[in-house]
Amino acid sequence: MASVAFGTLVGLGALVIGVTTRSLALVGFAVDAIIDLSASILLIHRFQAESRGRHGTPRLERRAVGFISVLLVLAGFYVAVQSLLALAAGAHPERTPAGLGISAASVVVLPWLALRKAQVATRLPSRALRADAFLTGMGCVLAGLALVSALLDLAGGAGRADAAAALVIGVVLAGEGIRGIFRFATKRD
């Protein structure tokens, strides 16, 4: 539940701030956070169904992995294309203390959440929860990229740092989604 609460706050906050300031790195991080939030909600549903003794939880687990993987690919391509357009146009985002704060808080909180999810995934075992733990850990990396790009921009006016960071974020999201789709299609762990 901590993941859902934090994901809601950070994902929506980063999305609103990223869109209003035209920070593609923050939008890319927000998209990852919202996908992570969706994964957490799907997994809560899956574990509730299992605790009630319902059959079909392996099917729910597999669907969760496939759904999240497709979202990652779509989000990754969107962020990558937008960042390439911003790089070509020389776009410079605005910076706000709130955007910096969300990124910094995520760099602090997300490693702990990722570790807790990974520990639970090992005990259950759950491939979908393990993937969600990885997604949360990647969220920390992406928040770090957004934070570094913002700090570079503030320090030297390197407005392209945001678009470059967003391009990396887009490639990482799409790559992880493609990997998940491949595992989903081949039923690999």
Distance between the termini: 25 Å
The outline comes out as: elongated
What's the total number of strands?
0
Major sheet description: none
**Share of residues in helices:** over 70%
Strand content: under 5%
Based on secondary structure, the structural category is mainly alpha
Query: What low-confidence regions span 5 or more consecutive residues with pLDDT below 50?
Result: none
The mean pLDDT is: 83
Radius of gyration over alpha carbons? 17 Å
Helix/strand order: HHHHHH
Structure overview:
- With 189 residues, this protein is an all-alpha fold.
- Helix content is 87%, strand content 0%.
- The protein is built from six helices and no strands.
- The chain has helices at 2-21, 24-51, 57-89, 97-123, 127-156, 160-186.
- The model has no long low-confidence stretch (mean pLDDT 83).
Topology:
Elements (H helix, E strand, L loop, with lengths): L1 H20 L2 H28 L5 H33 L7 H27 L3 H30 L3 H27 L3
Keywords:
single chain, 189 residues, mainly alpha, 6 helices, elongated
Short summary of the structure?
The chain has 189 residues and is mainly α. Helices cover 87% and strands 0% of the residues.
